[in-house]
Amino acid sequence: MIDLHTHTVFSDGELIPAELVRRARVAGYKGIGITDHADSSNIELILNNILPFARNDGHFFDINVFCGVELTHVPPGLIADMTRRAREAGADHVVVHGETVVEPVAEGTNLAAIEAGVDILAHPGLISEVEVELAAKRGVCLEITTRKGHSITNGHVAALARKFGAKLVIDNDAHAPGDLVSLDMRRKVALGAGMSIEEYEQAEQNSRQLAQRMLQRKQ
Predict the structure, then answer these.
(1) Taking the chain, what is the end-to-end CA distance rounded to the nearest angstrom?
(2) Looking at residue 162, which CATH number applies to its domain?
(3) pLDDT, tens digit, 9 for 90 and up, residues 146-167
(4) How far apart are CA 47 and CA 41, in angstroms?
């Protein structure tokens, strides 16, 4: 299992990075991406602290640790610049907090994230067909989430991804120990969203491929 969307005390998570990573390893994960909520006020704070941890400490946990950010409630007009800023600062991957139906995310966030070429568009809510088709063309992964509330629209996301050939990944959006769900629960969430076994397996493979690309960039 690989999960590329989690949070620590550097935003609204409950755990320091070391405990999050340790708990993920014990739960059976082989790779974890720490992606604390970021905007222009704290992006360097996050990366300046999590990047050294991921680079210097991660291998001691017997798990691949990646450092990214989740651009959250960033105005759509700033997402492209913030994505570049994150990558220039060394982020392994960039996630954008999509237009979930349970938060007042600005309209246009999904499109701006896809146009910026982020790695993962998290919980994109009632994303449009045009946006999903563009995500497929740009290689932006759409998230199937195990997190309550955000998961309400998983079925919609999965159906449009199938229609247009967009890539899916499965993430916990973990904020607390109990959010690190088991392999069996990840599969059940995918099947509950209407995905086939083959589609579920491909989503897990998509996460592995993204992690492999990040590992290659580190070398």
Answers:
(1) 22
(2) 3.20.20.140
(3) 999 999 999 999 999 999 999 9
(4) 12
Nearest to 120 by CA among 168, 173, 183: 168
Q: Identify whether the C-beta of residue 82 lies closer than 8 Å to the C-beta of residue 40.
A: yes
Q: Which residues contact 198 (CB under 8 A, 6 or more apart)?
A: none
Domain count across the chain: 1
Full-prediction pTM beyond 0.90?
yes
Place of tokens 């497929």: 136
Kindly give the parts of the chain with pLDDT less than 50.
none
Q: How far is CA 139 from CA 22, 57, 132, in A?
A: 31, 31, 10
pLDDT at residue number 79: 98
Q: Which pLDDT does position 141 carry in this prediction? A: 98
| Tokens encoding 41 | 């006020």
User: What's the confidence (pLDDT) of residue 123?
Assistant: 98
Length of the chain: 219
Residues facing residue 170 across a β-bridge: 144
Domain extent at residue 41 = 2-218
